[in-house]
Design brief:
Helix content: 25-40%
Shape: elongated
Radius of gyration: 23 Å
CATH architecture of the largest domain: Alpha-Beta Barrel
Distance between the termini: 47 Å
CATH superfamily of the largest domain: Aldolase class I
């Protein structure tokens, strides 16, 4: 993550100086990656290639490489400015810098971040200022195109707090994109529901995070956080050392379950079974293309006394077929599941979740 490069001690310096700070790491990056690989893990790294700090060697050497309106104070955000990717020399410099890092270690994953909006759209080199933003975006695509060609096995994840980089152009280069910095499981029901209208679930960056949640202060069950995260790329956004023994056991179970369901999530058909803006029971299902298997998930975002049962009507099953539920052993007809629906367990509490695997007989 952040902090491995240049003279980076806080968030006010060194963006653009993409050289490994071996003094801070205590070893070359390649050695750190080797030690991580020895634990059976792949090694990934974070970069913010489109950004530059005023307090950086790059900015001191090339102040004209910054998008900035002459005669005006620049719009600063997070103590950083934006590089002018419409310029070929900027693109080439950043590409070479990234390659030097990737060539120096066994890096399987690159997180390409963008932590501020692009303002001051003025290039010191462009004759036509009206096309700078467009050319800047094409420049970003060009660098990513070259990286993908040179490192075909590298997984690049796009990121910009979520929607700032969640576009079809980036999806061409980044098979997964961080969906939102808001990792609250209940808020994510809305976020991931909306995202699913334009993007496949396998592209949606989604993680289990700590509770109370950083953004909302809300506490949700660890199981529910896992169910929501499993509707996307799945991962953990927390310090494992702070987990309880029960939570650590849950992590192992969740990871094993996600791996077992990977084909359904990655290659199956995704059906929205509710609208979180209207329905208190939020449900979705992944179904194998041939209808042979399905994974139903649901979260109860509100609980009220004496309320009627919540029935979840499935979609995508094979009409006329019968399905056995792995968790209970019960057998259901596909028509009943799709027409009448399956009741959410009455003991499901607010923010509780429910998962059911169905296999066609």
């Amino acid at each position: 993550d952040d902090g491995w490069f240049g003279a980076r001690r806080d968030d006010r310096s060194s963006l653009g100086d993409w050289t490994v700070n071996e003094e801070k790491l205590g070893m070359p990056l390649g050695e750190l990656a080797r030690r991580v690989n020895a634990l059976g893990l792949k090694f990934g790294i974070w970069m913010e290639p489109e950004m530059i700090s005023e307090d950086s060697a790059l900015c001191r050497a090339h102040p004209d490489w910054v998008l900035a309106v002459p005669g005006q104070a620049p719009v600063r955000s997070r103590s950083q400015l934006v590089l002018d990717f419409s310029r070929e020399e900027v693109r080439e410099h950043i590409f070479r810098a990234i390659c030097a890092v990737l060539d120096g270690a066994n890096i399987a994953y690159l997180k390409w971040d963008l932590n501020r909006s692009i303002a001051d759209v003025y290039s010191h080199a462009a004759p036509d200022q009206g096309r700078v933003l467009y050319r800047n975006m094409l420049g970003v695509y060009e660098v990513l195109e070259k990286l993908c060609a040179r490192y075909p096995e590298l997984l690049i994840e796009g990121c910009s707090g979520g929607g700032g980089r969640f576009d079809a152009g980036m999806l061409h280069y980044c098979p997964q994109i961080w969906c939102s910095d808001n990792t609250d499981a209940i808020d994510r029901l809305y976020i991931q529901h909306g995202t699913s209208f334009g993007y496949p679930a396998v592209a949606v960056g989604s993680h289990v995070s700590i509770c109370p949640n950083h953004q909302t202060g809300r506490s949700t069950p660890f199981e529910t956080r896992g169910v929501v995260a499993a509707a996307g790329t799945f991962g953990y956004e927390l310090d494992p050392a702070q987990l309880t023994g029960e939570e650590r056991a849950a992590v192992k179970t969740q990871i094993a379950a996600y791996k077992a369901d990977a084909a359904l999530v990655h290659d199956g058909l995704y059906y929205r079974l509710s609208d979180p803006a209207k329905d208190v029971c939020c449900a979705w299902v992944f179904v194998a293309e041939d209808g042979s298997a399905a994974r139903l998930s649901a979260v109860l975002r509100e609980k009220h006394a004496n309320e009627p049962a919540h029935y979840i009507r499935l979609r995508g099953l094979t009409p006329g077929a019968r399905y056995r539920a792995r968790e209970t052993g019960r057998v259901y007809s596909a028509d009943a599941l799709m027409d009448a629906g399956l009741p959410l367990p009455l003991d499901c509490r607010e923010y509780g979740s429910f998962t059911l695997h169905l296999e066609r007989e």
